[in-house]
């Protein structure tokens, strides 16, 4: 597009462009201030795991895990429990939820959940650390914040990953993951409430960092301020649509604020 000189055309398209740019700058400035306030206020920080801390299935693809669960169900003669869409869905949690809806609290669900946990544990060695996550965790712990993980993944998976990165001590065993009762997975606030209770934390003194609308809803229901992390534009769009007001596309600005550089 060719931009005309502004001149005296106060009502031309360039005036609108300037106004739009100014508004965008104001929005970014306001969000930066919100981020700083959130971080400075937080005494307790709850992290979702798969996303803000690492990409668990970066090397051990989630779609292959989902396929494994479907094949296992087929060997049990139970593939018919899934719709055609569920049988080819790339998210293993969709398979687990589907079976749970049709056979809640059954041995079948328990066995399927354990199989998913084993697949998650296999994924740990090839998981990709989220950029800046390790130094962010260490810095936040060093300045005195209490840290916990509230996730729909297995706590055993989280523990294995943290140990591999030398981060276990930063969380002091405050790892709250998937339980046998799948009704308590996020967006239910169960794992957040467990973390808050264990640390003796008031919700208003905490901060939840998550990358999914279910994290945002769980934080809202627990009364905990929420910071969205989006590794791409699609994730950001989903978080914004869910009502997340403060979203970062990198953890670097969070680390900068903590270090007094932001």
Automatic annotation (TrEMBL):
Signal peptide: none annotated. Pfam families: Hydrolase. InterPro entries: HAD-like_hydrolase_sf (IPR050155), HAD-like_sf (IPR036412), HAD_sf (IPR023214). Coiled coil: none annotated. GO terms for biological process: DNA repair. GO terms for cellular component: cytosol. It comes from the Bacteria. One of its GO terms (molecular function) is phosphoglycolate phosphatase activity. Keywords: Hydrolase. This is HAD hydrolase-like protein. The lineage of its organism: Bacteria, Bacillati, Actinomycetota, Actinomycetes, Kitasatosporales.
């Amino acid at each position: 597009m060719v931009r005309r000189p502004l001149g005296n055309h106060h009502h031309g398209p360039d005036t609108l462009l300037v106004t739009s740019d100014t508004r965008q700058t104001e929005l970014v400035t306001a969000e930066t201030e919100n981020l700083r306030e959130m971080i400075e206020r937080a005494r307790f920080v709850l992290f979702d795991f798969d996303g803000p801390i690492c990409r668990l299935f970066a090397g051990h693809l989630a779609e292959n895990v989902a396929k494994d669960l479907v094949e296992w169900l087929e060997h049990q003669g139970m593939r018919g429990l899934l719709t055609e869409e569920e049988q080819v869905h790339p998210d293993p949690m969709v398979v687990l939820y589907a079976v749970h809806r049709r056979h809640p609290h059954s041995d079948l669900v328990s066995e399927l959940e354990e199989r998913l946990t084993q697949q998650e544990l296999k994924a740990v060695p090839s998981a990709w650390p989220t950029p800046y996550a390790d130094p962010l965790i260490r810095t936040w712990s060093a300045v005195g914040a209490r840290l916990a993980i509230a996730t729909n993944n297995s706590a055993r998976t989280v523990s294995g990953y943290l140990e591999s990165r030398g981060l276990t001590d930063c969380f002091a065993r405050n790892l709250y993951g998937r339980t046998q009762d799948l009704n308590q997975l996020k967006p239910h606030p169960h794992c957040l409430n467990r973390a808050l209770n264990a640390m003796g934390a008031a919700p208003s003194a905490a901060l939840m960092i998550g990358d999914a609308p279910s994290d945002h809803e769980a934080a809202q229901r627990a009364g905990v301020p929420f910071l969205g992390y989006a590794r791409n534009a699609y994730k950001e769009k989903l978080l914004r649509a869910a009502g997340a007001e403060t979203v970062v596309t990198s953890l670097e600005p969070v680390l900068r604020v903590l270090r007094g550089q932001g």
